[in-house]
Amino acid sequence: MMAFLKLLARNRLAAFGGILLLALVLLALITPLLPLLEPNATNPANRLQPPLSDGHWLGTDQLGRDILSRLLWGLRVSLAVGIAASLVAALIGSTIGLVAGYFGGRTDNTLMRGIDMLMAFPYILLALAIVAVLGPGLMNALYAIAIVNIPFFARNIRGATVSIAHREFVDAARLSGKGDLRILVSEILPNVLPVIVITLSTTVGWMILETAGLSFLGLGAQPPQADLGSMLGEGRRMIINAPHVATLPGLAIFLLVMSINLLGDGVRDALDPRLKSGALSRPAPMTRLRRRQHVKVDDVVRVPGQASALLEVDDLHTDFEVGRETYRAVNGVSFSLKPNECLGLVGESGSGKSVTALSLLGLVASPPGVISGGHVHFQGRDLLDLGIRELRRVRGNQVAYVFQDPLSTLHPLIKVGDQLIEALRTHQPLSRQAAHQRAVELLGQVRIPNPERRASQYPHELSGGMRQRVGIAMALANDPQLIIADEPTTALDVTVQAQILTLLKRLREAQGTSVLFITHDFGVVSQVCDRVAVMYAGRIVEVGPTQELLANPRHPYTRRLIDCVPRLGDPDHEPAAIPGLPPAANALPSGCAFADRCDLVEPRCREGEIALIASDGERQVRCIKPLANRTTTGAAHA
Ligand code: ADP
Ligand code: MG
User: Fold this and answer.
1) Beta strand spans in 363-404 (E)
2) Can you tell me where the transmembrane regions are (predicted)?
3) Residue 24: CB atoms within 10 Å
4) For the segment 125-153, what is each residue's pLDDT rounded down to a tens digit?
5) Kind plus residue range of the DSSP H or E element containing 289
6) What is the CA(279)–ligand 1 centre distance, in A?
């Protein structure tokens, strides 16, 4: 609820509408308490006084009645009738929609054809016809407005209901023996409630307008009772010599309906779960950079022969600022990557691998993401200091990205060939013809059979492995020096995974590309990576050449991670889960973040920051008591 209000408040127009509406509603509520003149008391001697005249702030109308008083009482009536009509329409319409959508078949047909009949008439005409039958009067106007608005609710709610009526959780509820009524109330209704609220919030304003319309025509509020519509209707006759009599109620209607609609739009946006993540506040084209002073824990430990590093990440910090909390997703990460090297970044889910990778190219959504410190030197330039134009020239060009899920990263409505062409032409001055040729070439390069035909297919016509090949082809399009691959094979089955890994390896050999390979799978790491960095709670806890690190992990966390992996052909090896959970990113402990889960923990582990220290050769470990070599023979992993 708080999150909802916050999201709503962030939308300035909606907040403005909300405040205005609140003010109007409050005003309507306290009207009886205000020292107003009697709204229906006529005083012909005092007719058509202009605003600000004696005793009548807003003047008087043609019968000498106080306009301010009539306006406020009228506002009350209009609000009450509009809201009541909406609620009636929402209740009846939603019930019809729920029942029709849930039961389907003949019930659906019968109910919906009835609704269609209502919809077949232009609906203000239908409202007029209903009032004509029932006779003029405020209550009858209310019924008429409610009836003509039932179809909007019925259709919207039916649509929402149909789409969830056969989902697994409904089947599960049915299996558990719940009856239809209980399923409707406890499973379906909560899920379509947002749709009801949204429909309601976007139709209330409309209904108030319609009520005013009927009153304007003399079919709603009957004299002497005032509502905004009837006041407008009466004032219209003297619009020339006493314009205020009609203008003031007109203005009131305008403000009321506008405030409701602004708020309604805001409610709709805020209730859309897809926007909850903060998407309402448009993300910046690059991650915000606000360098703060961080205590640097690690010295720059240079790996031998590293003078010619392609990528050098130094003490990178990326935070998420959500409300008053700061989540330190990346908390001082340093590593480097040589040309033609493949560095694996391994760690449990949530350890900060993706955020690290995204930070390199300023791709972390801001808000809530902030890069709060560090440097990312790529070919000597600090990528974090580049402007958006320069950064765009690097993204997808010198540094390319392969994402985990190839289906969600390809545009479903554009042919894969055209997507490749777009990637090419963004960075290279190619004609369409030449780009097409190159696209087909790329598809061949990633070993897609019959590339010419595949180029003219849509993503859904390709298998998962093929889509990921397209993703890789796209990454290769502009001959990048560095490819960042974020779990590129996690969504694929093992055979396809093996093919993709072989492909990446071959491409690396052929083109000399460097790869930052993110994965949680040690099997994959051992196949493709030269070196491995193990991440835990936003920090690298161990780095080293792949084979050495896998054979002799130094950090207790690394060892336990490796022990979690089931070994083929070794049924005696029991994969051991690591007890406990990683620390929350907004409450990192001092000292070693792994201390709580480590079976070798001692008091020293929780004191002060623990630096990454060189252990032997190219290896570094963030542990005060690194493990010794494994002594057992045959402990090498397949
Ligand atoms: P992984 O290692 O699985 O790729 P991530 O890099 O995606 O992990 O996430 C690292 C941490 O950052 C996690 O604790 C996650 O909860 C947090 N995080 C990621 N995105 C957001 C966000 N938009 N808002 C708040 N926290 C986030
Ligand atoms: Mg990830």
Assistant:
1) 369-378, 381-382, 399-402
2) 79-103, 115-135, 188-209, 245-264
3) 18
4) 888 899 989 999 999 999 999 999 999 99
5) strand 288-289
6) 16
Mean pLDDT of the chain: 87
What are the residues whose beta carbons fall under 8 Å from the beta carbon of 338, sequence distance 6 or more?
305, 306, 308, 309, 310, 514
User: What is the mean pLDDT of the segment spanning 243-249?
Assistant: 90
87-123 residues labelled b (16+ CB within 10 A) or e (exposed): ebbbebbbbbbbbbbbeeeeebeebbeebeeebeeeb
DSSP string, 521-571: -HHHHHHH-SEEEEEETTEEEEEEEHHHHHHS--SHHHHHHHHTS--TT-T
Look at residue 458 and give its three-state secondary structure.
Answer: coil
Q: Is 538 in the pocket of ligand 1 (CB under 6 A)?
A: no
Give 324 or 171, the one with higher predicted confidence.
Answer: 171
Number of the ligand 1 atom closest to the C-alpha atom of 278: 23
Ligand 1 atom nearest to 350, measured from its CA: 8
The residues whose Cβ lies within 5 A of ligand 2, an ion, are: 354
The atom of ligand 1 lying closest to the CA of 518 is 4
Residues 86 and 92 sit within 8 Å (Cβ to Cβ): no
Ligand positioned closest to the Cα atom of 320: 1
> pLDDT digit string (tens) for 468-494?
889 989 988 898 999 999 988 887 788
Domain ranges of the chain: 67-271, 538-637
- For the CA of 349, the nearest atom of ligand 1: 3
| CB distance 322 to ligand 1 below 6 Å | yes
CA distance 518 to 54: 78
339 preceded by cis ω (within 30°)? no
What tokens appear for 475 in the block? Answer: 């990454």
For residue 351, report the distance from its CA to the centre of ligand 1, in Å: 7
* Residue 272 pLDDT: 66
**Centre of ligand 2 from the C-alpha of residue 492, in Å:** 15
Which tokens go with 445? 């390069």
Q: Is the pLDDT of residue 5 over 90?
A: no
Tell me which architecture the domain covering 67-271 has in CATH.
Orthogonal Bundle (1.10)
Question: The whole model's pTM is what?
Answer: 0.69
Q: Is the shortest distance between the CB of 320 and ligand 1 below 6 Å?
A: yes
Give yes or no for residue 297 having a pLDDT over 60: yes
CA distances from 489 to 31, 133, 359, 448, 472 (A): 66, 68, 21, 17, 11
